[in-house]
Amino acid sequence: xxxxxxxxxxxxxxxxxxxxxxxxxxxxxxxxxxxxxxxxxxxxxxxxxxxxxxxxxxxxxxxxxxxxx
Length: 69
Known about the structure:
mainly alpha, 3 helices, 39% helix, 0% strand, flat
């Protein structure tokens, strides 16, 4: 059993996206925020495949932060 809480990861990320979307006028930020869901990180796939497929070419960014409980 892996049990790292993918449902929780998804809920947290969607909650953050919703908060930012609903409070845009109250947040002092001039930029773009990307919310990235990583599939199949336990086996073949995950970040490596996403990067090979051009994630950062399609969505260029200066920084990335992750969460894993």
